[in-house]
Amino acid sequence: MKNVEIIGTGSYVPQRIVTNDELSTIVETSDEWISTRTGISERRISLGENTSDLAAKAALEALKSAKLDAKDIDLIIIATTSPDSYVPSTACIVQELIGATNAVCFDVSAACTGFIFALNTAVQYIKTGEYKNALVVGAEVLSKIMDWKDRNTCVLFGDGSGAMVLRAGEEGIIKTYMASDGVKGREFLHCFAAQNKNPFMYNSLDVKDKITMSGKDVFKFAVKVMASSIEKVLETTQNSIEDIDYIVPHQANIRIIEFVAKKLKIDMNKFFVNLNKYGNTSGASIPLALDEMNKQGLLKKGNKVIFVGFGGGLTWGSVLVKWTI
Ligand code: COA
Fold this sequence. Notes:
The chain is α/β, with parallel strands linked by helices. The two termini are 21 Å apart. The chain has two domains: 3-174, Peroxisomal Thiolase, Chain A, domain 1, CATH 3.40.47; 175-322, Thiolase/Chalcone synthase (Peroxisomal Thiolase, Chain A, domain 1). It is globular, with a radius of gyration of 19 Å. The longest helix has 20 residues, at 215-234. Strand 4, helix 4 (90-98) and strand 5 (104-108) form a beta-alpha-beta unit. A five-stranded mixed β-sheet has the order 1-7-6-4-5, sandwiched between helices. Strands 8-13-12-11 form a four-stranded mixed β-sheet, sandwiched between helices. The mean pLDDT is 96. Helix 3 (51-66) crosses helix 4 and helix 7 packs across helix 8. Helix content is 31%, strand content 23%. Bound molecules: coenzyme A. The site of coenzyme A has 19 residues, from helix 2, helix 6 and helix 7.
């Protein structure tokens, strides 16, 4: 079995910044409410670029940082909850946009845990030797599926993308963990796709194809599984939390991260946070955060880093990685 290294990162966000004050002109809210409840100050909103456009820009940057050509990539997996289309997959569209003519391409749907699931999927393929160089992208234009009249949700999310290039190597990914629970809490976070309406049905439901959420339930779930996912990925690895240099959490709410830090007695400085600038970018949040850390020069060879995510489904998971570049 081979191991898997992260050899490049990239990210892209739309230019348009929407501040909390600007949102308060659309729904009844305030900068004070949003920033004290969530830590979010502003987010980026696409003015027309689609998910594949954001993904392609992050992907090209990651390829540049990995010093690879798009044609060297043999696997592209995109995590998204806001794809361009049902068919083709966003990954196939990105394949064309970046010219990755030798890649197998597909999308992964696991809401805000999507990037962790996509990364873990690529890791398994590389470990078995099936593929050598993979591009994993988290990309979202959530503004397409936002109810801009619902202050419970529209203040929380933003658009963006992040990418990583992986390749077979000697060390890198130490452990992966994924979990799902479609039994309890499936309704906590919801966004319907096209509904079953056809001329042969007498009745059809009129359901909402925008994100709905039970904030308090999601908060409780998030704190619980973020803490357990951090512990889970350390189990059987001979690493303890003291050995970890950074935690890159899904960027949903600063209070969720603070709760987890307190619960596990982890110094807040170990958590990288950029949700103040971007809000919750769902599948994009972890690779977008990691790329910012990389660009800021925070990551040193040999550092041990945990990525940890949670989201609708319900889904959650984590990855422990030794930084090798
Ligand atoms: N501006 C002003 N008031 C708002 C508001 C907004 N944007 N959104 C909701 N409110 C109101 C509600 O209507 C409610 O009013 P009511 O009590 O009169 O009914 C009240 O604020 C709710 O406040 P509170 O219960 O104190 O909020 P909270 O502390 O639970 O925070 C969230 C709400 C959504 C920020 C919080 O529950 C949360 O972050 N949950 C997790 C969400 C998440 O991360 N989702 C994505 C997961 S991947």
